[in-house]
Design the sequence.
C-alpha cells in the first residue's frame, strides 16, 4: 500500500496539479448520436477549441444492464423519461469497434484521448489501445472491483464522486491506494442532468483535497461555464464538461453539453481564472510601478516667502507623489520655510525649518 498520492501527475506529457493550468476534459459521452463520423468531428472540435483531452465512455447496453421492461428498469422523469435502461444505453453507447479509430485519430491530431470503462471488459479493450489514463464515473464509484482493476494498470485514475458519501469515498480511495494507484484525482460532482447551480457546493473541492490528500477537480453538469470557472478559483485542477457539436442535433446528453464556442470560452476563462490566483503577496507588483507617481503627496499650493510659518492654506495632499507622504501633513504644519516657495513645489524636509 502506498503512503500518499502524488500532488502532481502527468497525462501524455501534460502536468496536472495546483502549479499547472487547469486540465480541461471534453466529455464526448453519447453526443456522437450514433455516428462515428460525428464522433471524429467532435474530437476535431475539442482539439480546435483548446481542450487538453477528449474522453470517451466504453460500455455496451449488454455490459451495463439487461434487456428487461419491468418497473425496476424504467426511467421516470428527467431527460430520459420513458426509456428503459437497455434502450437508453443502446442509443447512447460508443461501440467497442469504434474505439481504435477514435484513439488513432485523436493521437494523429495531437489531443489526449482516454475513456471511462464501465466494466472489466472495457478495461481490457482500453488497455489494448494503450489508454493513458482512466476515469471512473460516479455511478460506478461503488464498484470497488472495477476500481481495483483500473488502479492495477498503474495509469492515472480520475474518479467522480457524485452521489458518494464520505464512507463511500473512503472506500474507493483506499481501494485505489491498496491496488497501487499513486496518481489519483477526485472530481466533485453533482449527478443530476442538468445539475442545479444552487446545489453545486463548490467549497467541497478544497475539502476533498485536504481530506483525502488528492488532486481535486470538478465534473460539471450545470448549464454554461460559470460554475466550472468558479471551481478553478476554488482549487479545481481538472474540469470535465460534456461537449457537443450542436445542442440542436438532440443527443442523449446534448441538453447539458457545451457547444464549440462555449468550450473555447471555458478553456480560455478557466486558464485566466487560474492565472489570477497567483500567491498571497503584499509587495508591489511590476504592473503597479508606473502608477506610483500618481499617489497623493504634500505640495505647496501658494507662493510663500522665506520664513513664513506653514498653515493648512499653504499645503495640500494632492496628486502626484513627488512630495512627502500624506502621513507627514501634521508634522509639516507649523514649520517655517527656508526659502521662497512657488505654487506647485513638492514639500520636502530640505525646504523646512522645524
Sequence:
Amino acid at each position: 500500500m502506498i503512503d500518499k498520492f502524488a500532488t502532481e501527475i502527468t497525462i501524455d506529457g501534460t502536468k496536472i496539479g495546483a502549479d499547472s493550468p487547469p486540465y480541461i476534459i471534453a466529455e464526448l459521452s453519447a453526443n456522437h448520436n450514433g455516428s462515428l463520423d460525428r464522433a471524429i468531428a467532435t474530437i476535431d472540435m475539442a482539439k480546435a477549441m483548446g481542450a487538453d483531452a477528449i474522453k470517451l465512455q466504453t460500455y455496451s447496453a449488454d455490459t451495463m444492464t439487461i434487456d428487461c421492461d419491468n418497473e425496476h428498469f424504467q426511467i421516470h422523469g428527467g431527460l430520459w423519461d420513458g426509456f428503459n435502461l437497455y434502450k437508453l444505453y443502446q442509443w447512447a453507447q460508443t461501440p467497442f469497434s469504434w474505439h481504435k479509430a477514435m484513439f488513432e485519430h485523436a493521437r494523429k491530431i495531437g489531443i489526449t484521448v482516454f475513456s471511462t470503462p464501465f466494466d472489466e471488459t472495457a478495461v481490457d479493450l482500453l488497455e489494448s489501445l494503450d489508454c493513458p489514463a482512466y476515469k471512473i464515473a460516479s455511478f460506478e464509484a461503488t464498484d470497488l472491483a472495477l476500481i481495483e482493476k483500473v488502479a492495477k494498470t498503474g495509469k492515472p485514475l480520475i474518479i467522480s464522486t457524485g452521489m458518494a458519501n464520505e464512507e463511500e469515498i473512503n472506500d474507493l480511495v483506499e481501494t485505489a491506494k491498496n491496488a497501487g494507484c499513486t496518481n489519483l484525482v477526485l472530481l466533485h460532482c453533482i449527478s443530476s442532468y442538468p445539475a442545479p447551480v444552487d446545489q453545486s457546493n463548490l467549497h467541497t473541492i478544497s475539502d476533498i483535497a485536504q481530506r483525502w490528500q488528492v488532486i481535486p477537480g470538478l465534473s460539471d453538469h450545470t448549464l454554461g461555464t460559470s460554475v466550472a470557472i468558479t471551481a478553478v478559483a476554488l482549487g479545481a485542477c481538472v474540469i470535465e464538461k460534456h461537449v457537443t457539436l450542436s445542442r440542436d442535433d438532440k443527443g442523449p446528453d446534448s441538453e447539458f453539453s457545451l457547444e464549440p464556442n462555449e468550450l473555447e470560452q471555458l478553456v480560455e476563462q478557466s486558464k485566466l481564472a487560474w492565472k489570477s490566483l497567483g500567491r498571497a503577496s503584499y509587495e508591489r507588483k511590476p504592473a503597479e510601478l508606473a502608477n506610483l507617481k500618481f499617489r497623493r503627496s504634500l505640495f505647496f499650493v501658494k507662493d510663500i516667502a522665506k520664513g513664513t510659518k506653514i498653515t493648512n492654506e499653504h499645503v495640500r495632499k494632492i496628486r502626484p507623489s513627488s512630495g512627502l507622504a500624506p502621513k507627514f501633513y501634521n508634522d509639516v504644519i507649523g514649520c517655517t520655510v527656508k526659502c521662497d516657495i512657488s505654487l506647485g513645489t513638492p514639500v520636502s524636509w530640505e525646504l523646512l525649518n522645524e
